[in-house]
Amino acid sequence: MALATLAPLFNGRRRACARDFGAKFMLRMALSALLSLVLAAGLSAPLMAEVCTPDKVGAAVDQAGASLRAYNSEAQPKLRERLKSLADKKGWKSQDAEEQAVELLADGKVGEFDTQANDLLSRIDVLGRPGADGAVACTNIPEITAASAELLAVMKTKSAYLNRKLDTELGAPAEIAKPAAEVAE
Fold first, then answer.
1. Is the pLDDT of residue 77 over 60?
2. What is the C-alpha separation between 109 and 63, in angstroms, rounded?
3. CA dist., res. 159 & res. 152, Å (int)
C-alpha cells in the first residue's frame, strides 16, 4: 500500500486521538474544579459556622443548673417529709433534728456521692469559663451537657440511697427497704 493511501487513515486517527485527548482534558479539568469546590466548602464550613458567643456557653451552664434545681425542687419536699417522720419516730427535737438526721444518714457512700457531685459542679464551672483572652470554647458545650447529665444521675443515685436508708430507719417492709448498700452498687 502506498503511503498516500494510508495518510487519510492516519490523519483520522490523529484527529480522533486529539478529540479524545481534548475530551479527557476537559473532563479532568471539570473534576478538578468540582473537587476544589467541594474541598473549599468543606474547609470553609467551620469558618461559616455560627459564631460562638459567651451566651451560648452560658446557656449550657444555665441549663445544667436548671436541671439540678428542677430535680431538687421535686426531691427535697419528699425528703423533708421523710426526715420529719424519722424525727418524730426517734423523738428528736425540731431544732436538733436536722443535725441528728445528718449524723444518722451520713456514711462513706454519702461522702462519695458528695465528692462526685462537687467534682462535676467544678468541672461544669471550669468548662463554662472564658479563657484568659476572653474567648469562649463552644467545643466545651457537649462536655458541659455530659457533666450535667452525670451530675443529675449522681444526685438521683444519692437520693435513692438515702431513701433506702430512711426506709430501713422508718421500719419499711423488707420488700420495700432493700439494704442501702445494694442501691449504691
1. yes
2. 27
3. 10
Residue type, 77: P
Q: Which of 117, 124, 116 is nearest to 59 (CA)?
A: 124
- The x, y and z cell numbers of residue 163, run together, are 431513701
What is the C-alpha end-to-end distance of the chain, expressed in Å? 97
Rounded CA separation 86/163 (Å): 11
Q: What is the mean pLDDT of residues 59-82?
A: 94
Check residue 9 and give its pLDDT.
47
pTM for the whole structure: 0.65
Question: Residue 105 contacts by C-beta under 8 Å, 6 or more apart in sequence?
Answer: 162, 165, 166
Which of these, 169, 174, 176, lies nearest to 85 by C-alpha position?
169
For residues 123 and 149, the answer to whether their CB atoms sit within 8 Å is: no
